Amino acid sequence: MKRLIFVQPNGGVAVTIPAGRRDGEPEAAWLDRVARKCCPKGGKLVAVRSPEEMPDRKHRDAWVWDGQNVIVDPSRIKPPAPAVQQERAGTVVARDPRVDALGPQLSEQIASAFQAMHRDLVREVAVEHRRALESLTVASALAEGKQVEPGSFPALERSLLEQGRPVTSDEIIAAADEHTRRVIDLVAGEQ
Questions:
Q1: Which residues contact 14 (CB under 8 A, 6 or more apart)?
Q2: Range of the domain at 150
Q3: Are 126 and 162 in the same domain?
Q4: pTM of the model as a whole
Q5: What contacts 93, CB < 8 A, 6 or more positions away?
Q6: Contact present, 72 and 54 (Cβ < 8 Å)
Q7: How far apart (Å, rounded) are the C-alpha atoms in residues 186 and 159?
Q8: Is 86 a domain residue?
Q9: pLDDT above 70 covers what percent of the chain?
């Protein structure tokens, strides 16, 4: 089967192997039709050659038109890609210094995150501890028949304000009861 040779603007060649002729189509008309259809943008048909007249495909990317034939331009031959070596199982890979530099940075970031989490946890435990102590104080005051006065239980009062509830004696007592029930549920494992 014939090859259509087109010269491209970059100096390389494009080669088209045309499909079969239509019934009764003359060869010249067939090649002209295929050439118009397959010509690359900016390309120019320069020859029709048989496969035997073409160079070896080993350096296809280095083919050029010398005015009469398709030849291999040695200056266009790309160097072979470096071989990728597969690592054998059990081998140790050399350490990458960029990765080594990331270690201390990641370590600092993780330590900082844990410190922040620890501070938040300690703060939350301290608040819960204050609420527990204030709840016991409320229960003790009620058992002794004393009044529960607003302004004496800052942790319980803060939780009331966070919930949008008014800070009254009755609400402080209700908050103390709720907190005591929550603590009992936590201790019992019902969370």
A1: 5, 6, 8, 40, 43
A2: 97-188
A3: yes
A4: 0.41
A5: 87
A6: no
A7: 18
A8: no
A9: 92
Same structural domain for residues 181 and 104?
A: yes
Clarify whether residues 101 and 31 are in a common domain.
no
Give the CA count within 13 Å in the CB-facing half-sphere of 34. 22
Answer whether residue 88 is part of any domain.
no
Number of domains in the chain: 2
Query: For the purposes of burial, counting CB atoms within 10 Å of the CB of 57, is it exposed (0-12), middle (13-18) or buried (19 or more)?
Result: exposed
pLDDT at 86: 67
Size of the chain, expressed as the number of residues it contains: 191
Q: Is 55 in contact with 74 (CB distance < 8 Å)? A: no
Rounded to whole angstroms, the Cα distance separating 140 from 135 reads 9
Report residue 164's pLDDT band, with 50, 70 and 90 as the boundaries: very high
- In the predicted model, what is the mean pLDDT of residues 118-140? 87
In a domain, 81, yes or no: no
User: What residue type is assigned to position 36 of the chain?
Assistant: R
> Is the domain of 107 the same as that of 42?
no
Report pLDDT for 1.
Answer: 74
Residue 102, sorted as left (phi over 0), alpha (psi -120 to 50) or beta, turns out to be alpha
Tokens describing residue 29 = 């008309």
Q: How far is CA 107 from CA 42, 95, 120, 173, in A?
A: 58, 18, 20, 47
Question: What is the per-residue pLDDT across 74-98, written as a single tens digit (0 to 9) for each?
Answer: 998 888 877 766 666 666 666 777 7
